[in-house]
Design a protein that fits this description.
Blueprint lengths: L9 E4 L6 E2 L2 E2 L3 H10 L3 E6 L6 H10 L9 E3 H11 L5 E4 L2 H8 L12 E4 L7 H13 L2 E4 L5 E4 L3 E4 L2 H11 L5 E2 L6 H10 L6 E5 L2 H11 L2 E5 L7 E3 L5 H5 L3
Helix pairs in contact: 5-6
Bound molecules: magnesium ion.
Length: about 250
């Protein structure tokens, strides 16, 4: 597909599989980010990872050699916290990491499954039968259900596959028969809307760069942003073999 990136003010990078695999940077990612910055493009990061805080992800990017401020890093957990705060949701049962619970505890009361009015679901790497039971009970009585995302898997450490938050959300929708009221992560638009609101840049003047057709391309399309897909050939989207190839693609003249 023909590429036209005139008028682009910001590039939003996915993390897993685009900038890094676990604790390893993907060759060319830093150079591409530096190159785009030298052209006056603002760089932002958007990941569905809800297991870590923005600060943790920022520190990790610093360790990988990429400069960024915490305000430039968005994850589905952060968007979920902002939504709970905005809607004034109370009595929340959380499926997720300890750091996610801690962030949520700043804006809502964290309660057990028998007192939940709100259920928020992110990735929980310690999800077991006991937690499944509690999550099911919370889902059946909650007025509002929020999912961070429904990604069934992601490529992480050692370029290997891991189950995503979709392992938890799939269980909840199957067992409770309930669908969420909000899904804040990619490919849904709340994360892009928040980025646009915070930066003052319209989505139409941003390009999403990622390695997932469903998650990243869908995200850009739903929000009205441009998009570049890495590592996959598709007829209906601008594709490049590696993150390094973006430099030539966006500045051919
Ligand atoms: Mg990815």
């Amino acid at each position: 597909m023909e590429a036209d990136f005139s008028g682009i003010k910001a590039a939003v990078f996915d993390l897993d599989g685009t900038v890094n695999y676990g604790d390893k940077i993907i060759p060319g990612a830093k150079e591409t980010i530096d190159f785009l910055r030298s052209k006056g493009i603002r760089i932002l990061f958007a990941t569905n990872n809800s297991g870590k805080t923005r600060q943790f992800l920022t520190d990790k990017l610093h360790r990988l050699g990429i400069e960024c401020d915490v305000e430039d890093v968005y994850n589905s957990g952060y968007v979920a916290v902002r939504l709970v705060e905005e809607k004034g949701l109370r009595n929340t049962y959380v499926v997720g990491s300890n750091s996610f619970k801690e962030e949520l505890s700043k804006v809502t009361n964290i309660v057990d499954e028998d007192h939940a009015d709100t259920l928020v679901v992110g990735i929980d790497t310690r999800f077991d039968y006991e937690r499944m039971t509690a999550a099911l009970r919370a889902a059946l009585r909650s007025k509002t259900i929020i999912f961070c995302n429904e990604d069934v898997s992601y490529i992480g450490e050692g370029e290997r596959i891991f189950p995503g938050a979709g392992a938890m959300t799939g269980f909840i929708t199957n067992c409770s028969g309930r669908r969420p009221d909000h899904i804040v992560g990619k490919p849904n638009t709340p994360m892009f809307d928040l980025i646009s609101r915070n930066t003052g840049i319209p989505c139409s003047e941003m390009v999403m760069i990622g390695d997932s057709y469903r998650s990243d391309v869908g995200f850009a399309r739903n929000a009205g942003a441009k998009c570049i897909l890495i590592g996959e050939e598709r007829d209906d989207v601008v594709c490049v073999p590696t993150v390094r190839d973006i430099q030539g693609l966006m500045w051919t003249h």
